[in-house]
Amino acid sequence: MREIRIGTRGSRLALIQVDLLEAALKEKYPDIKIKRVIIHTVADKDQNTPLVDFKEQGVFAKELERALLNNEIDIAVHSAKDMSVRIPEGLVIAGTLKRADVRDVLVYRKEFGVSLNDINKTLKIGTDSPRRVSQLENLYPLFSCESIRGNVPTRLDKVRNGEYDGALLAVAGLERLGLLEDEDFYYHFFKEEEILPAGGQAIIALETRTDDYVALIVRAISDDTAYAELKVEQQILKNLNAGCHEPIAVRAKVTGDDVTIFMAVANIMDGGKKSVIRRNSIRGKLADWERLAEEVSKDF
Predict the structure, then answer these.
(1) DSSP per residue, 221-279
(2) Domain 104-189 carries which CATH code?
(3) Does domain 4-100+198-297 have CATH number 3.40.190.10?
């Protein structure tokens, strides 16, 4: 077995995700040799432009995919929700690690009180996700969402120093970073039915070349449930020709041989400050996942 080159972004969270991959690989293959290759994406280099203003989808993944195609790395490690659903020819998501907590959490300064329902003033909430904006502002019309850039610790610092009153983030990232118990903040965890997650949220996707034996190595450590859920969620986004910049939420829950799919799509109105959210769900056998994905998304 040759040395396996793992391509990753250089953020602290990205490197923690590689730690998890390396642990899984070494448990299965104790003698495996691993090399990390840090790749800085265009979205990492540009920390000012809102993510929705980037022209292409998957801006955190494109350079990693190019490195795969150029045989500079053997595995690309992605946060699955940041990927385009259109995988370049010659590449494949060969596996996933076990899915973490899929919920979103609002992290805000303690001066506003422990209960969101008691806040009767406008709060400036940082998020770059139209999906989060539409759902949060429907729940709390007084809150005003504005673009926020930077990695998770940087976003928390922007809340801490008063640039924002709060930030809406993924629980999985905070949990992996050990940042769910900061004494400066309160944490409001949203139920999935309140703020439905993005497709692929909390899943670490492992991309390889299609014809490389490394794909088989990755498949052997893959979590079957997370892999199936990601496959369903990406198919729905593909059906809608959607990416991570649209106000679309989708969640597939696989339990044994069954799958339940939940969707939420926001129709933005009034100059982007108000939206109507349409929801749909379906349940059936996992073996019928393609038909179920088509059925649940056909009216959107």
Answers:
(1) H--HHHHHHHHHHHHHHHHTT--TTSSEEEEEEEETTEEEEEEEEEEEEGGGTEEEEEE
(2) 3.40.190.10
(3) yes
Please state the φ and ψ torsions of residue 77, each to the nearest 5 degrees.
Answer: -100, 120
Catalytic residue numbers? 82
pTM of the model: 0.91
- Kindly write down the DSSP assignment for every residue of 146-190, as one continuous string: E---S-HHHHHHHHHTTS-SEEEEEHHHHHHHT-S--TTEEEEEP
Q: Which residue has the higher pLDDT, 127 or 59?
A: 127
Query: Region 225-240: what's the mean pLDDT?
Result: 96
Residue-range domain boundaries for the chain:
4-100+198-297, 104-189
At 62, give phi and psi (nearest 5°).
-60, -45
Q: Confirm if 96 and 226 have CB atoms less than 8 A apart.
A: yes
